[in-house]
Write a structure and sequence with these properties.
Distance between the termini: 64 Å
Number of domains: 3
CATH class of the largest domain: Alpha Beta
Number of helices: 16
Largest sheet: 6 strands, mixed
CATH superfamily of the largest domain: MoaB/Mog-like domain
CATH architecture of the largest domain: 3-Layer(aba) Sandwich
Helix content: 40-55%
Length: about 425
């Protein structure tokens, strides 16, 4: 039976009245044959979904389609039939296989028009480089008639936001991750927030946890998750941490914050010992560095299996020079002896993968560089065993001026790179615990 579009629109409005507020359902589509071939990974869809969750927009589907006009048209028709908002990343460039806005424009029955501001930017780009602009570059400055053209602050191709009062809305974003993220955060999200604000005010809060797995965290909060209505709880497992996104819907920001505070208090009561921070950019390394900076404390490090990754994570944070004067990478046993002045007999007796060596590395580093704290890493990253210790065996040492030097043993059952990154994050976790 064929269903009339007007009937669907009326039913949607009827459901909105029953629910008592506007509930947006979105679909995210990534465009690019290279992703289907496994040459690159689609990271855009995750960023978009998390951003839409901030706005209280539910993402029901993810889709991936190659640079094929007929298959793109098929995917777009399907998405429009079941979603209020379709977000597409990729296919906005100047090459013949960049077809996204052409296919969407054809579906909407709209023409493409030129954004003169973007066109001027493209011409200036080629003029500064003393290169000829080919006709196909003009496509990057074009957008769908009736849409909002979204300026690209870090690239050339404009984005599009098309709002249909009686149908599906479309948001078109660049495929390059840095361009997509910039446009999505600075242009698209504010536009979507205003467009879909409705009668409800939506607020989200991101809680970040370290030292507990997703399944364990969800188990401890199972009744809260099962009974959730408002606010909602959405867990996300990331490498070496788990996050919970709490989203509240109320009549005002104050109402939302009260709801979020109440829910967070319940969560903290159960798993507060694992909660280290809030927000998208508040990583565990940045939390540790900020705690050290606020207290006027300093930190140094010596690394073996992690090869300087811990120190690189510190120095990636603005202002780290206030707390981190330097450290050592002592990959070979000889360098532990020469740079850290560790007694060769200690290494000979206990080995480099040992509690004794890890503790000596941390203490000697702190004494040599004269810092308040020092952390050390030694172990077998793999894939082969080291000194009879299986791959993934890691000792992390910690020394402080007002505490006994200690070392702790970990077993990370991962591949070589994951062992190294897990060790680094665990080192930050130990420091965070010590700092309180």
């Amino acid at each position: 039976m064929k269903i009339n579009n007007n009937f669907l629109i009326k039913m949607r409005l009827f459901c909105v009245i029953l629910i008592g507020g506007i509930k947006m359902h979105a679909e995210v589509i990534a465009v690019g044959t290279e992703m289907l071939l496994g040459e690159i990974t689609d990271t855009n869809s995750q960023v978009i979904s998390e951003g839409l969750a901030d706005l209280g927009i539910n993402v029901f589907y993810h889709n991936l389609v190659g640079d094929n006009e007929s298959r793109m048209a098929e995917v777009i028709r399907l998405a429009a039939s079941r979603s209020d908002l379709v977000v597409i990343s990729g296919g906005l460039g100047p090459t013949p296989d960049d077809l996204t806005k052409q296919v969407v424009a054809r579906y909407l029955g709209r023409d493409l028009i030129v954004d003169e501001k973007a066109m001027t930017k493209i011409k200036d780009f080629f003029a500064r480089r003393e290169r000829d602009m080919t006709p196909n570059n003009k496509v990057q400055a074009m957008y769908i008639d009736g849409a909002v053209s979204l300026q690209n602050e870090v690239g050339l191709a404009v984005g599009n936001y098309y709002h249909d009062e009686q149908g599906t809305d479309f948001l078109l974003l660049p495929g390059l991750p840095h361009e997509m993220k910039s446009m999505f955060e600075t242009k698209a999200k504010p536009l979507l927030a205003q467009q879909y604000k409705g009668q409800q005010v939506l607020n989200s809060r991101l809680l970040r946890f370290f030292g507990i797995g997703e399944s364990n965290l969800v188990t401890k909060l199972s009744d809260l998750i099962e009974k959730q209505k408002n606010p909602t709880i959405a867990p996300y497992a990331k490498e070496n941490e788990v996050t919970l996104r709490l989203t509240a819907s109320g009549s005002s920001d104050v109402d939302d914050q009260e709801l979020l505070d109440e829910l967070e208090a319940k969560i903290q009561k159960r798993v507060g010992q694992y909660l280290y921070g809030h927000g998208e950019n508040n990583s565990l390394p940045s939390v540790v560095v900020n705690k050290l900076r606020k207290r006027g404390l300093t930190l140094s490090a010596s690394e073996s299996l992690t090869g300087g990754s811990f120190q690189a994570a510190i120095t990636a944070i603005p202002g780290a020079s206030n707390v981190f004067p330097g450290g050592f990478v002592t990959y070979a046993a000889e360098q532990k002896e020469q740079l850290l002045h560790i007694d060769p007999k200690l290494i000979e007796q206990y080995g480099v993968v040992s509690e004794e060596t890890a503790g000596a590395m941390a203490e000697q580093t702190r004494q040599i560089i004269k810092t308040d704290y020092a952390v050390s890493f030694t172990g077998a990253a793999g894939p082969d065993p080291l000194e009879g210790q299986s791959a993934g065996t890691v000792w992390i040492g910690l020394a402080g001026k007002d505490m006994p030097t200690r070392a702790k043993l970990y077993h990370f059952p991962y591949d070589r790179q994951r062992v190294r990154s897990s060790a680094v994050m665990t080192g930050f976790g130990l420091l965070n615990d010590v700092l309180g």
